[in-house]
Amino acid sequence: MAAIEKRSREDWQELDKEHHLHPFTDHKSLHKKRSRIITRAEGVYIYDADGNRILDGMSGLWCVNAGYGRQELIDAAAEQMQELPYYNNFFQCAHPPSIELASILKDVSQPQFKRVFFAGSGSESNDTIIRMVRTYWDLMGQPGRHTIISRNNAYHGSTVAAASLSGMKPMHRQSGLPIPGIVHVDQPYWFGSDQSLSPEEFGLAAARSIEAKIKEVGADKVAAFIGEPIQGAGGVIVPPDTYWPEVQRICDEYGVLLISDEVITGFGRLGEWFGADHFGTRPDFMPFAKGVTSGYLPLGGVFVSDRVADVLIDKGGEFYHGYTYSGHPAACAVAVANIKLIQREKLVDRIRDDIGPYLQDKWQAFGEHPLVGNTRMVGLMGAFEIVKSKEPFERFDEKQGAGPLFRDLLTDAGVCMRAVGDTIICAPPFILSHAEADEMIDKAWIALDLAQKALFD
Ligand code: PXG
Question: Same structural domain for residues 339 and 363?
């Protein structure tokens, strides 16, 4: 018997309104219009309770990279649940799925990574890193090195510690964050700057703000720097090419640990296995989640470099940290199946050589639309910004809601993208065909024209 009842859309909406508190949601405004109820999905399409088919240009929430309905991922979960649905990795135990996954992850990551610590989400992974980073410096005889540098508008998760690493002011305001020992510098957002510098100069300057912060805090107090290779939730902020090499130089010079948050960029999104591979950095930690299982089951984790892991193992004694679901067997089995699927279907190469360039070309052409001020896309991770006027440059007043208006028109046309203010972001599944890419682009052009009419007529 199916666990979930069959109900009408209206019944689902009513129950949802009465009993369900949603993440990142203004409930008062949601209750006025009710939730869209998504009931099933196949390939790159999701279906709502009214039977509307919507092309999922966000891969769920940046995670369903292999697409929906992949039988081998479903089978991996079901078979593992029959064999061993749960056991922990505490108390000197382990099980085949967590061990197999840990060893496979080594094969797809940079050579400094031989070991992995599992968590249940990206937020938990970043909490883990804060504990490991500080423990590492204590063990190295530098207990003063506890400060972590992050960036404004970064997103590293929603737990108290991960929200503190995040650089989102409204999140911080709501609960007295950040916790002590976390400081922020500016993001490398050239289009959002006064553009007095070239992108290359701006990238260097943004990286050097980290160096300035290290000097301000004191090099003997800075433990680590954390950054998303491309900021995702903040609006797909693609740094100038000069940025990451300079960040690496600074981290090397001051001995600061480098954390590359790969929760969105990991497992192929940029046409390389990890964002660090794309930008040429050599991080000490890489948190991951989302795409490791293509979102089929929750799983997160942290790649820990030998520099850190060797010290934790040799000198650390017990590390007092772990989660009930660290290395959940079913989630790990799905992750193993998912990584094998990505390898067998050569999806990372496909993004780099085929669908990536195909979509990027068409995406760039949005820049010709009068409403679009800037376009950017790396691999299958892109954004464009809706502006009121290009010459002279002017943005819409936030109250006009130009971004959400476009997003709603696009959803009505049958394509899902996300609006971060007036920045429209897109991260479709890796299996997106050329025809599906065309459908997404054609519908976005139509929605842009409709948005322009609505905003100016
Ligand atoms: N790091 C990064 C870079 C993320 O994007 C997390 C950590 C936290 O992962 P968990 O699994 O704890 O959610 C994320 C999550 C959005 C959106 O609106 C993005 C995320 C989560 C929810 C919404 O784009 N990213």
Answer: no
d(CA 114, CA 303) in angstroms, rounded, equals 8
DSSP-assigned beta bridge partners for residue 377: 382
CATH number at residue 252: 3.40.640.10
Residue 20 in any domain: the answer is no
Q: Is 355 in the pocket of ligand 1 (CB under 6 A)?
A: no
Q: What share of the chain is helix, strand, coil (3-state, %, to 5)?
A: 45, 15, 40
278 Cβ contact partners less than 8 Å away, ≥ 6 residues apart: 229, 265, 270, 271, 272, 378, 379
H-assigned helices in 218-316: 243-254, 275-279, 306-315
Does residue 264's CB lie within 6 angstroms of at least one atom of ligand 1?
yes
Half-sphere exposure (Cβ direction) of 310: Cα atoms closer than 13 Å: 7
Instruction: State mean pLDDT over 136-161.
Output: 98
Residue 457 binned pLDDT confidence (cut-offs 50, 70, 90): confident
pLDDT of residue 67: 98
Confidence of residue 392 (pLDDT cuts 50, 70, 90): very high
Residues in the chain: 457
Question: Which pLDDT score is estimated for 183?
Answer: 98
pLDDT over 90 (residue 159):
yes
Across residues 58-81, what is the average pLDDT?
98
Element (H, E) at 287: strand 285-288
Q: Which atom of ligand 1 is nearest the CA belonging to 154? A: 3
Q: What percent of the chain has pLDDT over 70?
A: 100
Q: Is 261 in the pocket of ligand 1 (CB under 6 A)?
A: yes
d(CA 403, CA 451): 9
Out of 326, 344, 362, a domain closes at 344
Q: Output the pTM of the full model.
A: 0.98
- The pLDDT > 90 percentage for the chain reads 99
Taking the centre of ligand 1 as the mean of its atom positions, its distance from the CA of residue 418, in whole angstroms, is 13
- Residue 118 pairs in a beta bridge with 301
Q: Is the minimum distance from the CB of 157 to ligand 1 under 6 angstroms? A: yes
Asked whether the beta carbons of 175 and 163 are under 8 A apart, the reply is yes
